[in-house]
Design goal:
It is built from 12 helices and 18 strands. The protein is α/β, with parallel strands linked by helices. The protein is globular. The mean pLDDT is 89.
Length: 493
């Protein structure tokens, strides 16, 4: 038998690059090129399985978007995205253009409007790994590749971790292999990697994720989210049209059962859907900064319009009561999971649009305003740590740092979610609920916990959803403001 490495390399049929002055047809071309490329890989793999042998090594390429400008255009200086900063050639590889249709149409339309030059859609030089081409389609067939008698990577391209990284969003000043400048914050392989991880960790397909994402650290919020979703589906005026649970269970009838999975995923996700992704997703990330980073690392490629943490925290002030709310306007980062990507000396600012939406949602749901609102909500620094049992250590050091930072609450996820929002240019915020006060002897005991959860979770979740609905109604340029943009940014959000 010939060595696989001695076999000739066959590639998908070449497709000419085409220029477009309208976003819709440009995206349709991206979809056609991607479908042709992945269809070719799947067909060749299926043929090898049937024949039990390989006649060639096979390769297909991601489509790409490319634009070239020759002048220093002067777009509206209020914009934070949708334009390139100087003359040059800009390009990005694209995956799953069907999934990202709305996003791509929006971003391409802004380029066309701001620079008045066509965009070119063609094949890139980046191969599509077979694993990613088959994601969601005949996935079980990959398990049979041993029937071929040799390693899959000898016949097809496989994921390349050397080019699957966050160098673009981390501001490393990278250029594409051909010298062009990145047009988008993530490459196609980086996106494909995260889409696969999302399906694994959340047990829901990426297409169910909505543009507004809530994170929580307790199952109680999930139960209430399902109850809220059922009420929304029963209300024809709500605008929500489906509820999706882990296992890709989709219900449109508010009384339909949701079958329980035999085993929940690590970070189950639930989605209250609305047309064009304008609904709300809830992800139970569990406890700890590692989970918070993992979830946001992957959800970021979907380019959500906002994500918020709505979970529980330790209240650090004697004036706080169990059930009080904490609106974070600063973060003390002792989570240690993002130090290499975003140094701790980088400030994580509060975003006015998010803060106002959250405060107004609290006032609306609680029916309290102005000075009365201070009875149940404090605004201040939230400290995030990576040691759940910090109370068991010598208190002189931790308590002094917390006091110096003016911290009013402590948890294990909020600063991670905010810092990754800052890093990925995803608007972020935090509204926590005080569930214990360890510095003042009020520990979370079983009886107290049951009463607390029964009375507070529903109201807290309702506030988070209402804040998201307020953000949904904002113009895109307001929520994605210049505060999250650095010196040199990609044109695409």
């Amino acid at each position: 038998m010939k060595s696989p490495r001695s076999l000739p390399v066959e590639t998908a049929p070449a497709a000419e690059a085409r220029s477009f002055t309208e976003a819709g047809p440009a995206v349709e071309r991206l979809i056609a090129l991607y479908d042709d490329a992945t269809g070719y890989l799947i067909a060749r793999f299926a043929g090898m399985l049937r024949a039990g042998r390989a006649e060639a090594r096979c390769r297909a390429f991601y489509p790409e978007i490319r634009v070239t400008t020759t002048v220093f255009d002067l777009p509206d200086t209020r914009l934070s995205f949708g334009y390139v900063p100087e003359p040059g050639t800009y390009a990005t590889t694209v995956t799953r253009p069907d999934l990202f249709r709305n996003y791509l149409e929006q971003q391409i339309a802004l380029l066309l409007e701001n620079h008045r030059v066509p965009v070119t859609i063609g094949q890139s030089a980046t191969p599509i790994p077979l694993h990613f081409a088959m994601a969601g389609r005949e996935a079980s067939a990959l398990a049979q590749h041993g029937d071929l008698g040799f390693n899959l990577r000898d016949l097809f391209d496989v994921p390349d971790l050397a080019i699957t990284n966050d160098d673009i969003v981390n501001g490393e000043g990278v250029r594409n292999a051909d010298g062009s400048v990145p047009l988008a914050p993530f490459t196609a392989q980086r996106i494909d990697y995260s889409l696969a991880r999302l399906a694994h960790y959340t047990a829901t397909d990426p297409e169910h994720f909505q543009n507004h994402v809530l994170f929580t650290n307790y199952q109680f919020y999930v139960d209430e989210f399902e109850a809220y979703a059922r009420r929304a589906l029963a209300d024809r005026e709500s605008g929500y049209d489906a509820f999706v649970a882990p296992g890709n269970v989709v219900i449109t009838d508010p009384h339909a059962p949701v079958p329980a999975l035999a085993r929940l995923p690590q970070m189950p996700a639930y989605h209250l859907r609305r047309p064009r992704g304008q609904g709300v997703s809830l992800v139970n990330i569990g406890v700890g900064p590692s989970n918070a980073k993992t979830a946001t690392d992957h959800i970021a490629v979907l380019r959500p319009h906002a994500w918020l943490m709505v979970g529980h925290c330790a209240g650090l002030r004697n004036s706080q009561s169990l059930g009080d709310f904490v609106l974070a306007h600063a973060y003390l980062r002792e989570d240690n999971v993002l130090n290499e990507d975003l140094p701790v000396w980088v400030p994580i600012p509060a975003l006015a649009e998010i803060q106002i939406a959250l405060q107004e949602a609290v006032a609306e749901v609680t029916q309290l305003e102005d000075y009365e609102l201070k009875r149940i909500m404090r605004t201040g620094t939230v400290a995030t740590i990576d040691n759940r049992n910090w109370e068991l250590r010598d208190q002189s050091g931790p308590v002094h740092r917390l006091s110096q930072s003016r911290a009013i609450a402590l948890d294990m996820e909020s600063a991670t979610i905010a810092a990754n929002g800052f890093r990925f240019r995803v608007p972020y915020g935090t509204l926590l609920c005080v569930s214990d006060k360890p510095l003042h002897g009020e520990l979370k005991l079983p009886g107290m916990a049951s009463e607390f959860y029964r009375t507070q979770v529903a109201r807290h979740l309702q506030i988070g959803i209402r804040a998201m609905e307020r953000l949904r109604d904002m113009p895109l340029h307001r929520i994605h403001s210049r505060k999250l943009r650095s010196f040199a940014e990609t044109a695409f959000l």
